[in-house]
């Protein structure tokens, strides 16, 4: 049983196709296919059922996958530990992050980290969907908001506020809400990957506002631009808003209650262990973002 065959199988199972696995591994499709076939011959079992339309794991493939993932992870961690002992961090580091945050803030911060650790092979995928680090084959996932998965460890990187904002044109036409009751009568630009409820801290606990949706979308930059275009009010994290507020494109609203905040976490599988690479990345990102983060400093 060859190690590269195990790597080809895990990449194919996690990516869902040989084409996607070949892109992840940086190999030709024919090479990945041959390594899969060789692994199946060495095991004496078919692991993947191939048809012209789709690829699926056999019963044996489902049984073998978690062990194969563990073999790869252990090998990668052993390699990273040896490199760390020699004073060098090296090897692959596969990350996932939300699209808007990745474009605006993670990219520049990651450039700094890579420049300091040239031997680390970083792979970043931007995705606004909920990404499972374990199922997706990622070493770590950056996420805003609660993790809620006991299989994963979450380390806080930064805190972000959320602000209600609207364009001057929208407020001129529809008025400026001064209370939660008035806010509920307005149109909202809502995040599609989460319940559309807006939560606010009051003296009696949390109050929920359910505005009528002018638009539901799963990307913060599109939400920001829709609010700037006057479609409705948006509740957005400050990391998306700094330039728009300082330029006057969007106006923060005061409804007499503070909106629920957001925290930025780096998460990884509990059985992964906090590898030296993940610890170094988390430390580097915290330094780049600052405390409080630079997107919450308005002067």
From TrEMBL:
InterPro entries in the record: LysR-type_TF_proteobact-type, LysR_HTH_N, LysR_subst-bd, WH-like_DNA-bd_sf, WH_DNA-bd_sf
Q: Which domain of life is it from?
A: Bacteria
Q: Which UniProt keywords apply?
A: DNA-binding, Transcription, Transcription regulation
Gene3D superfamilies noted in UniProt? 3.40.190.290, Winged helix-like DNA-binding domain superfamily/Winged helix DNA-binding domain
SUPFAM superfamilies, from UniProt? Answer: Periplasmic binding protein-like II (SSF53850), Winged helix' DNA-binding domain (SSF46785)
Q: Which residues form a coiled coil?
A: none
Q: Which residue intervals define the domain HTH lysR-type in the entry?
A: 1-58
- Please report which protein family the annotation says this sequence is part of: Belongs to the LysR transcriptional regulatory family.
Give the protein name, as stated in the record.
LysR substrate-binding domain-containing protein
What organism is the protein native to? Bosea vestrisii
């Amino acid at each position: 049983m060859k190690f590269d065959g195990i790597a080809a199988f895990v990449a194919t199972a996690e990516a869902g196709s040989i084409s996607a696995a070949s892109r992840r591994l940086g190999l030709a499709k024919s090479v990945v296919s041959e390594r899969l076939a060789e692994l199946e011959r060495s095991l004496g079992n078919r692991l993947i059922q191939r048809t012209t339309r789709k690829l699926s794991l056999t019963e044996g493939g489902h049984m073998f996958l978690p062990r194969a993932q563990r073999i790869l992870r252990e090998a990668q961690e052993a390699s990273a530990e040896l490199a760390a002992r020699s004073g060098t961090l090296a090897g692959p580091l596969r990350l996932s992050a939300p699209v808007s945050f990745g474009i605006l803030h993670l990219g520049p911060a990651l450039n700094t980290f890579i420049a300091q650790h040239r031997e680390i092979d970083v792979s970043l995928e931007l995705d606004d969907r909920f990404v499972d680090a374990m199922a997706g084959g990622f070493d770590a996932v950056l996420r805003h908001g609660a993790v809620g998965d006991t299989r994963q460890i979450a380390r806080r990187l930064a805190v972000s506020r959320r602000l209600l904002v609207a364009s001057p044109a929208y407020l001129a036409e529809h008025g400026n809400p001064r209370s939660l009751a008035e806010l509920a009568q307005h149109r909202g630009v809502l995040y599609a990957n989460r319940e559309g409820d807006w939560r606010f801290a009051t003296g009696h606990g949390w109050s929920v506002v359910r505005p009528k949706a002018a638009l539901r979308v799963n990307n913060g930059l599109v939400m920001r631009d829709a609010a700037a275009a006057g479609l409705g009010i948006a509740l957005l994290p400050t990391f998306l808003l700094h330039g728009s507020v300082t330029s006057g494109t969007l106006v923060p609203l005061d409804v007499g209650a503070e909106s629920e905040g957001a925290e930025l976490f780096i998460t990884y599988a509990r059985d992964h262990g906090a590898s030296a690479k993940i610890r170094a990345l988390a430390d580097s990102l915290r330094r780049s973002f600052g405390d409080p983060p630079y997107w919450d400093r308005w002067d």
